[in-house]
Amino acid sequence: ILLILINVLFTPTLLWVLFPIFGWLIGLVIHITAYIVYARGVFPIAKRVVIFNTVAYIFVNLLLFVINGYTDALLIKIKPSYLWFLYPVFFWGGALIMHYIVYLAFYNKKLYEEGEKQSRMERAIEKEMQKMKKNSML
């Protein structure tokens, strides 16, 4: 609220307060995502990384879109519109798609003998349980 007040009082024609607001929005959304991931018990770290990467991609590119649109509105008299925010959208989007492919190919759940899918944690627990049974029989 203080930043909005400073912006309105000293530079009412330039709404620079949008930039820190969107920056805080990115941090807030990442924290909310962390809470949701923790509350739902998403275990595999690779899955968490994909989720956080996607959320960061969406909200950082939203900020870049706002910056591009706002600076275009200020500079429209000098030169025509230049959509520079599309570069990070496409290149980061391509990297994100590759990240999804790698996740699905290498880190997704594996099929077991029984025909059910088990995560790495479930397999480790099962292996440890078998060791404990084996040791208790001795």
Any idea how many domains? 1
The number of helical runs is 5
Helix content: over 70%
How far apart the termini lie comes to 69 Å
Decide which structural class fits the backbone. Answer: mainly alpha
Order of helices and strands: HHHHEEH
**What's the total count of β strands?**
2
Low-confidence stretches: none
| 3D shape | elongated
Strand % is under 5%
Mean pLDDT: 85
The gyration radius over C-alpha positions equals 24 Å
Largest sheet: 2 strands, antiparallel
Strand order of the largest sheet: 1-2
List keywords for this structure.
mainly alpha
What's the SSE blueprint?
Blueprint (H helix, E strand, L loop, with lengths): L1 H9 L7 H23 L4 H31 L10 H22 L2 E2 L5 E2 L1 H18 L1
Antiparallel strand pairs: 1-2
In short, what is this structure?
By secondary structure, this protein is an all-alpha fold. 75% of the residues lie in helices and 3% in strands.
Structural commentary:
The longest helix has 31 residues. This protein is an all-alpha fold and 138 residues long. The radius of gyration is 24 Å and the shape is elongated. Helix 2 runs antiparallel to helix 3. The chain is 75% helix and 3% strand. It has one domain. The chain has a two-stranded antiparallel sheet with strand order 1-2. It starts with a helix and ends with a helix. The mean pLDDT is 85. A hairpin with a 5-residue loop joins strand 1 and strand 2. The chain contains five helices and two strands. This is 2TM domain-containing protein. InterPro entries: 2TM_dom. Keywords: Membrane, Transmembrane, Transmembrane helix.
